[in-house]
Write a structure and sequence with these properties.
The protein has 122 residues and is α/β, with parallel strands linked by helices. It contains three helices and five strands, in the order H-H-E-E-E-H-E-E.
């Protein structure tokens, strides 16, 4: 019986450790994918503005996208505004990461509203 309790404790401890590592991996993966999704969206939205003189009405209006662009297009929520656009990050890998960027990242972009934090109070 003592052997079974020891075995149970070992299995429980292993499960908790694996769960903790998996949670850490997911958080890191969400941050990496979220960062890439957000920046890819900005790049093609801003390129559209340079090419055509205005921001797209919808993400589906973006031209010359590749198959991989569908990943970030489903991971952000875009809304054109009268003076720019709103871009919210809705998914990283499987969850929504908590990202922030410094003031110089935001300089020159048309993003007026977002759920991504602006570090440094900018």
């Amino acid at each position: 019986m003592a052997h079974m309790r020891g075995l149970f404790a070992l299995v429980l401890a292993t499960g908790l450790l694996a769960s903790s590592a998996c949670g850490r991996f997911q958080k890191q993966a969400d941050a990496k994918f979220g960062d890439q999704n957000f920046k890819s969206a900005i790049a093609l939205i801003e390129l559209h503005k340079v090419r055509f003189g205005s921001y797209p009405d919808h993400l589906s209006d973006l031209r010359f996208t590749g198959d991989w662009d569908q990943i970030w297009m489903s991971a952000v929520k875009y809304t054109k505004l009268s003076d720019g656009y709103e871009l919210d990050l809705v998914r990283g890998w499987v969850g929504t990461p908590d990202l922030s960027y410094p003031p110089e990242f935001w300089r020159g972009l048309g993003i007026r509203r977002t759920n991504v934090r602006r570090a440094g109070g900018a």
